[in-house]
Amino acid sequence: MPLKKTDEGLERVIGVSGLSLTILNFTIGAGIFVLPAIVGIELGTYGLFCYVFCAMLLACVMLCYAEIGSKVTTSGGTYAYVVAAFGEFPGFITSWLYLFAFGLASDAAVMNIIADSLAVIYPIFLNPWFRAFLFFILLAFMVLVNVRGTKQSITFIKFVTVIKLLPLVAIIIFGFFHVKSANLHWGSLPTLNTFGSTALVLFFAFLGFDSALTSSGEIKNPKRTIPRGIMLAGLLILVFYLLLQAVTQGVLGANMEAVRDAPLAAIAENMVGPVGAIILLLTAAFSCFTSIFGDVLASPRLLFAGANDGLFPKFLSKVHPKFATPHLAIIVWAALIFIFSVSGGFKQMAILASASILIIYLTVILSTIKMRTKKHKTSEKTFKIPGGLTVPLIGIAAIGWMLTSLGKGEILSVLIFIGVVCVIYFVMKKVKNSRVLENINEELI
Asked: Which residue(s) pair with 14 in the sheet?
């Protein structure tokens, strides 16, 4: 049976398992190799409650994504949802925040984590020229696989996600035999301030599911697949994180401060010797690689969707005649990652990442509420969050609380960035209108 193509020329090939594993790949990335120590040092065994708290907050956001994702099924994910609810201008700001203030900076940082991890074993990667060559080879491979087809990319992501999780699953299983009950004592209750600041850091360990939805134009039966894929992935991530935190706390206890930069490598070394630490360092590099690979699949769809709407250069909306993928958008996105990775410019943009993702999530929740008031062309049943506005309002309150934990510098940086994006939008709009007017005058003459 031939694959069904959308009006955008893309093929719907991503099912529930593909979406869930893509979300797992995005979410379980470099952060999980260091976060258990940060949480354990600050909160001790109470850190387990911090994971549950963050998961509950994110669940509100995920449910909103599930609802609006079952209604808006074109490519672009977050961008497409905001445009459908509020129009082009808010969508333009959201897409720039997502791509540059959050996505590109994060990708460049993770690329450097790959080089740093490998440099521990192979010091040659401390040399900037060898680092640049490594980045080029890795990104070229990602482009080649992603351009050749979304189906192949999803198959690859399924495979590498399972591979990268195996060492972490091994730590959970075998680590339980090294857990000391004394390390799991509850101790004194942390202050609300400490809990809040730790939750803000830990919150970002759960990010990534939204990136997987930028390929929404290639998801099979999105009204069914998106809600199921999101909820399945969210449950698996929470269980996985809780087990990993419990093992880390139980094995290392008070020793976490001494190994705060690589707690899981310390556990592996504790279990099987120095070779265990090397395996975990390689796993960290591989995990970063798979996360970037997933983003080279997902983020170009945001460029593609924006180009279709005239918000980005038109050539980015081209679809490969043979492979049915937005090949030029993929190549451009990989090139941008390379430039930021080797230039170091991503360090300045990293300040924007934490605040921008919270604002993005806030716009999606508001979009979900707005879409409930709109009549849809199709009579097909879509997913709806039970409980009316309870979940969206909890999400709004949670994000508001998170934003109060940000520093003045981060808030100011985001406001400046949004101001610059607004100027870019109105300049582009004016140029576009001028061209239309010129065309009309030429026809009249």
From this structure: 219
Q: Report the alpha-carbon distance of residue 413 to residue 424 in Å, rounded.
A: 17
Contact assessment for residue 65 and residue 213, using Cβ atoms and an 8 Å cutoff: yes
Pick the CATH number of 16-406 from 1.20.1300.10, 3.40.50.300, 3.40.1160.10, 1.20.1740.10: 1.20.1740.10
CB-based contacts of 195, cutoff 8 Å, min separation 6: 43, 46, 50, 53
CA angle 174, 180, 181 (to 5 degrees): 125
Tell me the pTM: 0.71
- Token pair for 138: 């890795």
Q: What single-letter amino acid sits at 29?
A: G
Query: Does an H or E element contain 38, and which?
Result: helix 35-43
Range from 131-140, 284-293, 412-421, 431-440 that averages highest in pLDDT:
131-140
Residue 67 tokens read as: 């609802």
Cβ within 8 Å of residue 210, ≥6 positions away: 65, 77, 78, 360, 361, 364
pLDDT for the residue numbered 298: 77
| Domain map (residue ranges) of the chain | 16-406
Backbone angles phi, psi at 219, to 5 degrees: -95, 130
Which residue is it, tokens 């969050």?
385
Separation CA 49–CA 348 (nearest Å): 33
Distances (CA, A) of 17 to 47, 221, 318, 406: 30, 13, 28, 36
Nearest Cα to 115, choosing from 232, 237, 333, 289? 289
The β-bridge partners of 5 are: 11
346 pLDDT more than 50? no
CB 10 within 8 A of CB 74: no
- Across 233-262, b (16+ Cβ under 10 Å) vs e yields bbebbbebbbbbbbbbbbbbbeebeebbeb
What residue has token string 């949004």?
A: 418
Q: What is the pLDDT of residues 103-136, one digit of tens each?
A: 787 788 778 878 877 887 788 988 889 999 999 9
Q: Report the mean per-residue pLDDT for the chain.
A: 79
Query: With 50 as the cut, is the pLDDT of residue 1 above it?
Result: no
Give the angle 230-232-235 at the CA atoms, nearest 5°. Answer: 105
**DSSP string for 377-403:** S--S-----TTTTHHHHHHHHHHHHHH
The answer to whether the CB of 165 falls within 8 A of the CB of 2 is: no
196-206 pLDDT tens trace: 778 877 876 77
Handedness of CA 295, 29, 395, 359 (dihedral sign): negative
